[in-house]
Amino acid sequence: MLNDELIEDNTLPSDFTALRYLREKRGLTGTKEGCASGDCGACTLLVGALEDGELTYSTLNSCITPMQSLTGKHVVSVEYLSKTGELHPAQQAMVESHGSQCGFCTPGFVLSLAGLYENKQSSEQPIDRAAVCDAISGNLCRCTGYRPIIDAGLSMVKEPMVEGSNETPYVELMSKNASIKTQLESLQTEPHDSSNYLQPTDLDQLAHALKSNPEAVLIAGGTDLMLENTQRYRDFDTLIDVSRVAELKHLHIGETSLTIGASVTYSELEDFSKTLYPHINALLSRIASRQIRNRGTIGGNVANASPIADLPPLLLAFDADIQLLKNDGSTRVVNIADFYQGYKQTQLAKDEMIASFDVSLDKLAQFHRFYKVSKRMEDDISSVMLAVRFEVDNGTLTDVRLAFGGMAATPIRGLKAETVLTGKVINDEQALNQAIEALRSELTPLSDMRASAKYRLDMACNLIRKAWLELNGTNVVTFSGHAVTDSILSTGSEASTHA
């Protein structure tokens, strides 16, 4: 369903993006192409989906989203917001706050703010600055005019709308629109597959799709895979979309472990961990942007085997097990420590995929911290990523995990430093200093456009000191994503004021 029109189109290539569809097939040119890689947000769309009978909306980057992946959903472009002739609150607020500068990125900002309006009004929650900044975290303004855009987001709704009141809302909420919901419900009974884009909903359908299309490429969120199409001009013949396979969407706490399905998105895990695992939630909020987190999956982040991926160090810190699923339905379990074989190389066989991750509840209950250092708070790649877990028994460190991203060709652990700390009392600063020296001897980071080798090494050492300080009860003050303490962190180094 595109805006207010039901559309059936069986002519599209499997990798034909939603951005191209809107602009080339429908003439909806309000949606812009800026980067074609999911970084700038000019192509943002608002997409509604039925979940447990409720209609919810989220944003995504249309430049890297196959149009066929949106089958059965409500796709909202910027043109739809003022269909009644009146501006949507997000649009009106942008006008009143002078939030549009050159105007190229404005449609993306408007749809991100409209999504925020939709979600907050539906749940009767106030819109604060943090919510606005999160909503537009994946929208870049090259005119550097964020202040009036934030003002616009804050002024969209003066007072929360109360159900049953006599007040007239600015616009009818899409999530409460019975007509949209009814039409989407009717689409759920329709098959989602085309000849070149398959969307199985359970493992049996997935097995059949794989058997019938042995050369097909698997896609989940596609936030990395689709760059092959938009940046390297690779054409995909047949795609098998695993994002709707129910068994790969499990996210639950069992008797001994937390199971995370491979097709669980960052946003889903972020919402799940908000109160249960706040440190995991804090890391997830630093990964990519809201649009990417709404599409990108946990399994994709790990299977992609990028050395700067943020979740593999976390899983290394928790000694997570990975369940691999073969095309014939059989499974095997591999520990995350054994999964990576080299740069962009894993234990995944050609006929395998990641099904889920199992994380011990006992390890989740132990002290853990995750530190991501990057040039921007959101929508940026780590210069250094550290995941830490300390197991403490009667004041003694009985198990230590120091896992790094961005330091080598694969995610790695500081094994020598771990050994030095294991068996020491938690406040043994001499052991900490010895561990840091051990780390300096075993890490050989590279220099690139994001950071020098020296910066990375100094940062890694200071982050371990930060974790040790927090373990011992020191409140390390954080500013803009970087933490500093007075006279505690090492001085005279390139990274001393940024750990």
Descriptive overview:
- This protein has 499 residues and is of the alpha+beta class.
- It is built from 18 helices and 19 strands.
- The strands form 6 sheets. Strands 7-8-13-9-10 form a 5-stranded antiparallel β-sheet. Strands 14-15-16-17 form a 4-stranded antiparallel β-sheet, with helices on both faces. Strands 2-1-3 form a 3-stranded antiparallel β-sheet.
- The longest helix has 19 residues, at 453-471.
Mean pLDDT score: 91
Q: Order of strands across the widest beta sheet?
A: 7-8-13-9-10
Q: Could you tell me how far the N terminus lies from the C terminus, measured between alpha carbons in angstroms? A: 48 Å
Q: What structural class do you assign from the helix and strand content?
A: alpha+beta
Strand proportion: 15-25%
Radius of gyration: 24 Å
Largest sheet: 5 strands, antiparallel
Got a strand count? 19
The total count of helices amounts to 18
Percent range for helical residues?
25-40%
Uncertain spans: 480-499
